[in-house]
Amino acid sequence: MARTQPFVRHAARVILLDPDDRVLLFAANLPSNSSRTRPRSVWITPGGGLNPGETHEEAVVRELWEETGLRGVEIGPCVWTRSHIFEWSGRLIDQRERYFVARCQQFVPDDRNWEAEEVAFLTAHRWWAIDEIETARDVFVPGNMGAALRELLRGFPAEPIAMGI
User: Which CATH architecture best describes the domain 7-162?
Assistant: First the structure.
């Protein structure tokens, strides 16, 4: 495939924490056309791309409902940003993410609102404690998630922190 300028895709994600500071993450299968040096599966927060005319805040509320069935959760501030370039279905994507914080009681996510792509992409969910993230052999996105969550629980940053890959 000839490389062209990547398509810029804006996305909103939510760091969903329970009362015990566990975070809800989804196991996501990377497409087979992803780089061979990258893992095949990663743990990610709920979220996704913005629809036309949608704000990041509106997108995070919609994505939270679509991917978990959860409604009525107060969305906190944007605390992290992340940019990364990847290939998806033969197209180069420059994804620019904003991560928001929300709290709720632990629950079992409802997948009835998933789109076909999410059914193939998201394979499991789990509430993770920070200690578990820091000691697991699994891959988490962003890569420094455990340490970043610890810092976040000490207090929200005045401005969003740019996260690594």
Answer: Alpha-Beta Complex (3.90)
